[in-house]
Amino acid sequence: MLFRAREEAKARCKTENIVDTVDSPPEWISADIWRQLVAIWAKDKWRNKSEKGKVNRGTEFEGSIVRHTVGSISFLRHEEILAEDLKKKPTHLKFFDRTHKRFKGKGDFVDKRSRVAHDRYQKAISQQDSDSSTQQDSFDTDAWCEATGESSRGRVYGFSIYKPVSSIMPQHASQRHIGASRYCSMIEEEVQRRVEIACLDLKATVNAQHEQQDKIMAELREMRELLRQAYESRATVPEGDNSLSGWGSNTNGGDQNKRDRGSTH
């Protein structure tokens, strides 16, 4: 969402420098929050991390850029849908095929890397002796890692970034493929990123509430001023009011007539 907001802001301002968009926030982000976001995006640390991520996403493996078929639906949701279709929890290999083959796992692989990984894994397990009837549904994590290469930053190729190595591999295997300190560091970075985003969202909500409250208070002050003016206009006696002056004259005249009649008697 923020990526799209950045790109749309740069398009509006006809620039590639995010700093030039500081005065052009989207409608759904307050100006103050947008300025803070631009300040973060303009830092060398953030730009270097963003560029590194872009390069990593576009890095070729076995002559092919990494791809999958999940689209806008998350890996976790795809796993739930596959479990509903199979009436049981899918194996890791079934899940890999579903997310890396066209036509819901029944077509061709979407790229060379997924096809190579699948073929290497199948070749590796076919050379092993089948110990039991359940061997077919088991997932050999060692064979998979040999087929796909070492895990990167605590992730195993072919599975969601939210599915850590420990959820796919046995404990002893996961420790061989990733250091505990590095994994903890990665988790801390992700938590910090999410906390920062949550804080920005919360601050945007609070600012919006304050703006709404200020607007309501301004309207109340305006109404109070109008009521005050109306009250003062009624309380003030206009000069030259004939009805009031006539009433006073008639009253005085009546008193004088009473005194005259009294003196006559």
UniProtKB/TrEMBL annotation:
Pfam families: Transposase_24. Residues 242-255 have a biased composition (Polar residues). It comes from the Eukaryota. Residues 233-265 are annotated as: Disordered. Residues 256-265 have a biased composition (Basic and acidic residues). This is Putative transposase-like protein. It comes from Apostasia shenzhenica.
